[in-house]
Design a protein that fits this description.
This is Ribulose-phosphate 3-epimerase. By secondary structure, the protein is an alpha/beta fold. It has eight helices and eight strands, in the order βαβαβααβαββαβαβα.
């Protein structure tokens, strides 16, 4: 069970401090948006390179961009330990996953809420993680989509069938009130933005989320 706080809800003027505030997390989730694949623009490779220099935890890059076949491998080359591309945007997901692994990162594939899992099941041997989006990608602070839990369960079933160690990540609206149903459905990596970076303080929010899924 791993917690990956999304820095999308952090203070962008103080990212080094914000990363230090989540030193007890397993990962720092960095949302890269290109204003084409999603209607929002965040940051790109130069900023990720800077974050990699100061982050106390490994970086989990979630690329919400067009043409990840071209743009995703350099994030792995720069040192991100996990790189997630969206299958809806990829031209050749199998080759892309192999390139990400060849650059030394875990290869991960994301599914938007409207994208079914079954057509992509055969890609499982190429993947280290599958991200099941629990909101429409693009913005933090949206409402959790509980109707994605059957998709999480379907991915978990495929992973069991195929064997191997593939993690299942959920992202969007994950909080103290929704994290347990994600774990029950089979997720084991939990992204949380607004539920971590708020007035309660990141460290205690992370501890609470972790406690809910590890008992
Ligand atoms: C949304 C991003 C998420 C976002 C989650 O497109 O992929 O990582 O930061 O934010 P919350 O946890 O607030 O829904
Ligand atoms: Zn994300």
């Amino acid at each position: 069970m791993q917690i990956s706080p999304s820095i999308l809800s952090a203070d962008f003027a103080n990212l080094q401090d914000e990363l230090e505030a989540i030193a007890q997390a397993d990962w720092a989730h960095v949302d890269v948006m290109d204003n084409h694949f999603v209607p929002n623009l965040t940051l790109g490779l130069p900023v990720v390179e800077s974050l990699l220099r100061v982050s106390p935890v490994p970086i989990d890059c979630h690329l919400m961009i067009e043409d990840p076949d071209r743009w995703a491998p350099p994030y792995a080359g720069a040192g991100a330990k996990s790189v997630t591309f969206h299958v809806e945007a990829a031209h050749d997901p199998k080759t892309l996953a192999r390139e990400i692994r060849a650059q030394g990162a875990r290869a991960s594939m994301a599914l938007k809420p409207g994208t079914p899992w079954e057509p992509y099941e055969e890609l499982l041997p190429e993947l280290d993680m599958v991200l099941v989006m629990t909101v429409e990608p693009g913005f933090g602070g949206q409402t959790f989509m509980a109707d994605m839990m059957p998709k999480v369960a379907a991915v978990r079933q495929s992973v069991r069938r195929h064997g191997g160690e593939v993690w299942i990540q959920v992202d969007g609206g994950v909080s103290a009130s929704t994290i347990e149903q994600c774990a029950d459905a089979g997720a084991d990596v939990f992204v949380a933005g607004s539920a971590v970076f708020n007035a309660e303080g990141a460290a205690s929010n992370i501890a609470r989320l972790r406690e809910l899924v590890t008992g």
